[in-house]
Protein: ATP-binding cassette domain-containing protein
Organism: Pseudoalteromonas marina
Amino acid sequence: MISLNNVFFTRQDGGTKRQIINDLSLTILPAAHIALLGDSGSGKTTLLNLLAGLLSPDAGTITVNQQKISELTASELALYRRKIGIIFQHYQLLSPLNVKDNMCFQARLNGLSPSDDEVNTMAKKLGLENKLTAMPEQLSGGEQQRVGIGRALLNKPKLLLADEPTGNLDAARSLDIVTLLKSLCEEEQIILIMVTHSQQLANQFTTQLFLKDGQING
Ligand SMILES: Nc1ncnc2c1ncn2[C@@H]1O[C@H](COP(=O)(O)OP(=O)(O)OP(=O)(O)O)[C@@H](O)[C@H]1O
């Protein structure tokens, strides 16, 4: 479960301060799947970064699975970040590593050692069973994003944050990837929060939240 209580976050915009997140309170239940929508610049990525512990609120508290992340020290935050899943629009695979090692990368960083069985099962679910020894540059965009999903899931997160994960893919492939991502999160009871500009993709989610003026309109 996630709760945000009276969270404020400002950015310096030229000479003035701009309130990006403005007294936001929100509860997200375990295993919820949420599409986060909002105009460009409304603060969607900022909100994901606050949940990822990459930014700290100016005021208010953020609690993720009973851990008050807004009060953690830098080293505690580094440990917290290792445990959550993040999927980026630009995949961010490591080019010298093959698919298998990319998929295992975050889990290994977090002290887990996925077995060959686990990796093969995940690769199969992602349709990557014949690509485990391929290098990232030999993959299509959709395949690279599936490696990104595998990398996040093999780390067994309780929370997965996805920032426009299909922003680089065409509509049909985006729908396939989001459907797959959602069903894998359902299977593993993972909270999924996905930023998207696409209403069609958001419609795959039972909960849609709209960020506007630093506030959530659910
Ligand atoms: N590092 C930064 N320094 C200053 N301002 C920033 C910084 N990063 C983002 N901003 C500003 O904060 C606001 C919110 O940005 P954010 O990236 O969270 O929006 P978004 O809703 O994710 O936008 P988009 O849909 O275009 O990706 C924007 O006005 C942006 O210009």
Remarks:
- The helical segments are 44-51, 74-83, 99-109, 116-125, 141-154, 171-188, 199-202.
